[in-house]
Structures are given as structure tokens and as C-alpha cells.
């Protein structure tokens, strides 16, 4: 059975969030470990974390994903900005270990004029500093749309980061369908070709999670604007090809689509489950 869920908020507690996921028909989900704008995190409620872990196990959930604040820039030129990213990520890895959530996803950053090579070097160096023996969380690099000066907009750039990490067994990839499509990989029409390329450049064994989003812009436009499933240029047929692809179908999928109400995610989860063969 397809593993699918959506982005949820832990503001009413971790166990409550997991129960909400169940009510929506989800068997995985994603959440921000702290305010998505990157401010200070509430202290972790250990009992609540343990309760969530037990609930996920008892209810047959696939792995869930913790997402780093999207405002972090791990390859920022300004030392304060880069240090802030490092502090947040370090603390998040400790929290993930305490919550027993296996994966921590982050955006590799924007080089803002320093050049792609420098951006890759800085993000790699940051990973080398934070991946130590104190935690065991697997860090996932998200594939990006290549919007503005984002790094990680090609499989080669993602691979270059992984290659620079000493503890590369601690690094995986989260493929965002909107982002790769925007970056110029036509995963809607030719998922086989795109995934063959992914396998050749990065290796499918690194792929741990899928962000399932349609795209408001055409393939190759480098614009990161998510659309609801079937309402963008990937379309329902493209989505069907993606969720049924043998290389993907057993991975956890998470919706990051623009909806106001949780009910709409329940509907979308049902829609996607209905597309599976
Ligand atoms: Fe993301
Ligand atoms: Fe994403
Ligand atoms: Zn995005």
C-alpha cells in the first residue's frame, strides 16, 4: 500500500499531530521541528515524543520526516547567517534522535552570488561539522528547483555535496516532484528517464522520501511554486506515473500542496491512494 501523508503542525503536541494524520488517512507526515522561520524551538516534551513514537509504531506508520526551517541558508556568505543555520540543524539532529524520527530534511541553500562551487563547499563543510557521534539521524538533501541562486537544482550538485561528506552513510535525498520538474527533469512524462538519471548520478539507494507536489510552472522554468495534485503542469496522469513507478512506490510520499483546511488534505490523500494500481 502507498505510504502518503501531508505537512502537519506540532503546535498541539506530537502525539496529537500523529493522531490527526491517522484521521486524514495518512500513514506518514512531515513537520517543522521549530518555527519554520527559524526562531528558537520549544524544549522537547520527552513524554510526548515517546508517545508519538509508540503511536506511529502501533499504527503501522511509514517513517515520518522532520523538515528544517526553510529560511535557513547553510551556505550563506554572512558568518552569522551560516552559524545560525548550523546551530538550528545541530539542535534539530539532537531533537530527531530524541524523537526517534529517522530523517531530517533540509534545503541545501542559496549561494547568493558566491558561485555554485562555493555554495556546495560551504554546505558540505557544515554537514561535516554537524554529523558527529552524538546523533544518528539521517540527513536528507532536498532536490531544489534551481530558483535564483539555489544549489541542489541538478542531480550532479546534490551528488557533489554527498561526495564531500565524510560520514556519507548519514546522508540521503528527498526528491521533490515540483522542484525536479521545475529544474528541468520531466518526471511527469518520463519518470523512467529521470529516475534512471538519478540512479546513474546519485544512486537510488540514497532516495528515502518523496515530496509529492504538482507545479504551477512548466518544466525547466526554475520556479518553485507548488500546485495541488492534478492542478499543475505535472497533472493527474503524470502523478499516476510517479506514484506507481516501481522505484518510488514503496517510499513515503508527503504532500506539500497549497490547501487551507485539513479536510482538503484528506481528500487529496484519498485521490492519490485512488491512483495506485
Ligand atoms: Fe522543502
Ligand atoms: Fe519540498
Ligand atoms: Zn518547494
Structural account:
Helices cover 40% and strands 15% of the residues. α1 runs parallel beside α2 and α4 crosses α5 (155-164). The strands form 2 sheets. The protein has an 8-stranded parallel β-barrel with strand order 1-2-3-4-5-6-7-10, surrounded by 4 helices. A two-stranded antiparallel sheet has the order 8-9. It has 9 helices and 10 strands. The protein has a single domain (3-273), classed as TIM Barrel (Alpha-Beta Barrel), CATH 3.20.20. α3 (79-99) links the parallel β3 and β4 (103-106). It is α/β, with parallel strands linked by helices and 277 residues long.
Rg for CA atoms: 18 Å
- Tell me the strand percentage band: 5-15%
Largest sheet: 8 strands, parallel, barrel
Q: What's the CATH class, please?
A: Alpha Beta
* Tally of distinct domains: 1
Name the shape in a single word.
globular
Order of secondary-structure elements: EHEHEHEHEHEHHEEEHEH
Q: Which percent bin holds the helix content? A: 25-40%
Distance between the termini: 10 Å
Associated small molecules: fe (iii) ion, zinc ion
CATH superfamily membership, which one? Divalent-metal-dependent TIM barrel enzymes
Task: Quickly give the structural class.
Answer: alpha/beta
Arithmetic mean pLDDT: 97
Task: Give the strand line-up of the largest sheet.
Answer: 1-2-3-4-5-6-7-10
Quickly give the CATH architecture: Alpha-Beta Barrel
Total DSSP helices: 9
- Low-pLDDT windows of residues: none
Which fold does the CATH topology refer to? TIM Barrel
Amino acid at each position: 500500500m502507498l505510504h502518503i501523508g501531508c505537512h502537519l503542525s506540532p503546535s498541539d503536541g506530537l502525539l496529537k499531530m500523529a493522531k490527526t494524520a491517522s484521521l486524514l488517512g495518512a500513514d506518514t507526515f512531515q513537520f517543522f521541528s521549530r518555527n519554520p522561520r527559524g526562531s528558537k524551538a520549544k524544549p522537547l516534551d520527552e513524554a510526548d515524543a515517546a508517545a508519538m513514537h509508540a503511536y506511529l509504531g502501533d499504527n503501522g506508520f511509514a517513517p515520518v520526516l522532520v523538515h528544517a526551517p526553510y529560511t535557513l541558508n547553510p551556505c550563506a556568505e554572512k558568518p552569522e547567517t551560516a552559524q545560525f543555520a548550523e546551530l538550528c540543524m545541530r539542535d534539530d539532529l539532537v531533537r530527531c534522535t530524541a524523537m526517534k524520527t529517522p530523517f531530517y530534511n533540509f534545503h541545501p541553500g542559496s549561494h547568493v552570488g558566491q558561485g555554485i562551487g562555493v555554495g556546495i563547499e560551504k554546505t558540505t563543510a557544515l554537514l561535516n561539522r554537524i554529523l558527529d557521534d552524538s546523533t544518528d539521524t539521517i540527513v536528507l538533501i532536498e532536490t531544489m528547483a534551481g530558483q535564483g541562486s539555489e544549489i541542489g537544482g541538478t542531480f550532479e550538485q546534490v551528488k557533489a555535496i554527498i561526495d564531500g561528506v565524510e560520514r556519507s552513510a548519514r546522508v540521503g535525498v528527498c526528491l521533490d516532484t515540483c522542484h525536479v520538474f521545475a529544474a528541468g527533469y520531466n518526471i511527469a512524462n518520463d519518470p523512467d528517464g529521470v529516475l534512471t538519471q538519478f540512479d546513474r548520478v546519485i544512486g537510488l539507494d540514497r532516495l528515502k522520501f518523496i515530496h509529492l507536489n504538482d507545479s504551477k510552472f512548466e518544466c525547466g522554468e526554475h520556479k518553485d511554486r507548488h500546485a495541488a495534485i492534478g492542478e499543475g503542469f505535472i497533472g493527474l496522469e503524470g502523478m499516476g506515473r510517479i506514484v506507481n513507478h516501481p522505484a518510488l512506490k514503496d517510499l513515503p510520499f508527503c504532500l506539500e500542496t497549497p490547501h487551507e483546511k485539513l479536510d482538503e488534505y484528506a481528500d487529496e490523500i484519498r485521490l492519490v491512494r485512488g491512483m495506485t494500481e
